[in-house]
Each structure stands twice: as structure tokens, then as C-alpha cells.
Amino acid sequence: MDLYLPVANLSVNALVIVLLGGGVGLLSGMFGVGGGFLTTPLLIVYGIPPTVAAASSASQVTGASVSGVFAHVRRGGVDFKMGGVLVAGGIVGTFAGAWLFRLLQALGQIDTVIAIVYVVMLGWIGGVMAKEALTAIVRRRRGQPPRARKRRHHPLVAALPFRTRFYASGLYISPLAPLLLGFMTGVLTMLLGIGGGFILVPAMIYVIGMATGVVVGTSLFQTLFVTAVATLVHATTTRAVDIVLAALLLVGSVTGAQIGARLATKIRPEYLRLALALMVLAVGSRIFLGLVWRPEEIFTVTLS
Amino acid sequence: MRRAAALLAVAAPLTMGQAKPVLVPDVSQRAIEIAYSFTGADLLLFGAILYPGGQVPAGEKPADIVVVVRGPTQSILLREKEKVAGIWVNAASARYRSAPSFYAIASSRPIQTIVDERQRAIYELGVDSLQLSPVSTAPADVQARFGQGLVELKTRAGLYVENPRAVEITDGVLYRARVTIPARVPVGRFTAETFLIRDGRVLAAAVRDIDIRKSGFERFVARAAQRAGLLYGLVAVALSVGLGWIAGTIARRV
């Protein structure tokens, strides 16, 4: 079933896009990530222009995170104060990201930068996660109790001024640290069309040292708002949000997310984390190969 | 009818001398509307060759028909990737002021056998004879490399098409050709040019316009995205929040 995308200016098979959204949604429901890091590259592989892909997949992440946020709010899993600080940083980051996007576009290096950032981030996060998950699996196999993780924030975070209390997170730290973290995620959201959950969650645990109970909920809370703002910024600057494409992705992903969330309860979390880590590494390697292999097209055209 | 005959009788001595035929071209669609299921369009270009005297001149070689469909010209920046420190990045670039967004040529015989290089350059017949108007002071060989790169890129994307022998001529007077317009073309005014060529000379030419535009919902969405960005963005966000919320509510009930 072919459908014409009015902003991307090409026709796509609607079923393929819905299934793509569904597959990403399934994974995002299982792992609690937005899934933007999969949607954008997959859309580009399908032939959607990179800018349209990044702009439209941001709104898909918004949709996928909504039901998660509601579920976490109901059981008190969101630290609103921390979330507010992250969102504030995220919004500033979105605008900085928009500026950076335009600059790189003018220089003609946007695609290369996006690819390099992806490779570095996915490789790093995937590596850390795989190592951690494997250790946990090995420990369980040997019958050792899982190692109790010491929850402490990074010494650099402790050194920052203007400390304040974040009751739900059980922290007394400077708001500058989460503000900066939110800012970086905002930049990435704008550049890559991702929610940034897979950066945010590890950073909240290992760098800021938040109580694990509120990490996922607060991360989703920030993702919801920042991707919404990113969609708005894209709609007013790059004008590359394709609402038809976004709707197709959403239909698939919100359904997939619900199925994924149910599947997730049936699998041991270590295996789930390992699977996610391997997937992240696979996507990262694919993008890396795209950088080093001779591209199919040496020339690219942009309107000027 | 009688008036036409009278006119012909008057004009006959004038036209007899040069014996210039006239082309009466037409296209199957004067306007192409892009709607939700648009996957490209098949254009039929057809028409008649009117010879003075009403019949194909005897003893002369049969004439050839060349049909060219062009899209609106675009000002583009062409970038060339180069391997720097192990990865492929955009390096050199060239700017073109007026590259056709779409160019399809169909002919009754391969274009190289119909006209020589000079005529091809004058009438821009063939993808190698396009006037791309580069804005550049680069040496000629670099410009040639970029020009060739652009043509090859567009050809692989199906936007520059050469189709020799796609024009059928019936009894030397009626011709028809089919040109496929892919879904990826930009909207705007397209032109369909028809050339009648004999002995390497263009005897007659005629142009028809074709408007390609988005219609209905597609036109509304594309316009909204361009003109009311903030509102459009708000609708996109509302749509995603709404769909996510509905799915969550349904899932909780099931």
C-alpha cells in the first residue's frame, strides 16, 4: 500500500513504515528506551532524507514515552523536581542543537557528524551495558548473589555549587549537573531525532547517582517534553516534520510498545539488558561500516 | 472549413518554397495532481506531423521525432565525498545555478545518430548535453568530473532518463511516446518539447506545459508545514501524545 509523504516528497509503502514503527515500539516497550536511535537510521536506509527522518522520529519517541510516563507517575516513579531541571536543560539544548544542525548543514558535514556521534555513543553505551549484563549473568550462573551496587554520584558532581535537595531521588546535589546532562541530551535529540533515554539512564545511575526507582520514570518524563520541543523546533526551523510519516510510525510504535512492555515482564532483566546491548552494538557497527566503506554514491545533491 | 481551405490556398505558395512541416503535439495530461497514493505518473506524448501538401514528401529520408520532458530547474550544491583519515566525508563541492530537477528524452532512434554534437548542445538533447550552468572557477577537468557525477547520480535516481527508440512513428505522420515521471520529482511547471529532425537539422519544434502540483490533503499538509510551522508542530505533538495516550489506555483495559 503506497502512500505519498507530503513533506518528504516521495511515496513509501505504508505497511513497511507501520511495521518498522511496530518493531521499534516492541523494543522500546521491552527495554524502556524511546527507540529513536533505531528509527532514524532505519528510515535513512529506507530512503527518507536524513533531516526528515530525524525530525519525524522525534515525534514518534514522544508518542512512545507518553504511556510510560503515565504508568510511572501513577506509582510515584517520577522525580518532578529533577525532571523539571532536566527538561529546562533539555529545552536550551534543543535550541543549541538547532543552531548546530544549521551550521553543520551549511558546512555539508551534518551526515558525517551524525554518523560519528552515533558510532561513538552506541559503541560506548553498548560496550558498558554488555559488560555489566554479562557480569550479572555469570554471577547468577555461579549462584553468587548479585553485587550490590554502591550508589554514589561522581566526585565532580559533588564539587558543584548551589546544592539543593531532590527528595524523590534521595540526593543533595547541585542542579547544575542534571541541567548540563539535560542540555547534552537536548542537543542529541535535535541532531539525531532520539529521545536520549539510553544515554540519560546510565548517566542518571552512574554519574548523578539517583535512586533507581525513579530513574526510568524521570528519564521518560524528560524525553516526553524534550522530544515534543524538538518536534516544535524542527517544525519552525528545518520544516522537515512529515506528519504523515510520524503518524504511520506512531500507529506501529504505540502498539508495539504495549506488547513489548508485557513481554519484558517474562524475561530476566540481565538477558534483556544483554540483548539491548548487542542490538545497540550492531546498529553502531553498521553505521561505522557506512563511514569506512566506499559509499554507493560519491556525490550528493543539496538544494541551495 | 471552406475558410481553412481558402487560407491554405493562399498560404500554399509561401510554404511550398521552404516545405516546412508543422508539429501538432499533445500530452495525455496537462496537469498531474499528487494525491495520497501518488507513485509517479505515466505521460503519453503524442501528436501529428503536418507536411505541406498533406502527405509525406516522397523520396526523402523519414524524419525523426525527439521528445524531451523537463522539470523545473533548481539551484543546487553538489558535494563530492573523499576518504579523509579513514572515513568518507564531504570534501569538494560545486554549485549549479540551473540544473533541471527532471529530464527525460525519448527518441525514435538513438539521439547520437540523429543529430551531431553541436545541435545536441544547442537544443540540449541528451543528458550529456545539458547546460547545467556551473558557478565555479575550477579547472575544466574538475568541472567535467562534477558534471558527470551529477548526471550519473540523477540517472541512477531515475530523474535523468534517456530512452532511445521509445518514440513510435506511424506512417510517418503520427507519433507517440511514453515517459514515466517518478514520485520523487519536485512540484512545479514541467515542459514537454517535441522536435522534428531530418538530416541532422531541427525542422520544427513545439512545447506543451504540464503542471505538477500537490492536491487535497497533501497540498494542505505541505503548505501548513511551510507557512504555519508552529501550529503544524503543535498538531504533530498533540497527535503523538494523543496516540500514545490512547494506546496506553486501551492496553490497560485489555
TrEMBL record, chain A:
A Pfam family: TauE
Membrane spanning residue stretches: 12-38, 83-101, 113-134, 179-201, 213-234, 240-259, 271-293
Compartment list: Cell membrane; Membrane
GO-annotated cellular components: plasma membrane
Keywords noted in UniProt: Cell membrane, Membrane, Transmembrane, Transmembrane helix
InterPro entries in the record: TM_pro_TauE-like (IPR002781), TSUP/Inactive_protease-like (IPR051598)
Membrane topology (UniProt): Multi-pass membrane protein
Protein name, as recorded: Probable membrane transporter protein
Stated family: Belongs to the 4-toluene sulfonate uptake permease (TSUP) (TC 2.A.102) family.
UniProtKB/TrEMBL annotation, chain B:
Keyword annotations: Membrane, Transmembrane, Transmembrane helix
Protein name as it appears in the record: TIGR02186 family protein
Keyword Membrane recorded: yes
Spans through the membrane: 229-251
InterPro entries linked to this entry: CHP02186-rel_TM
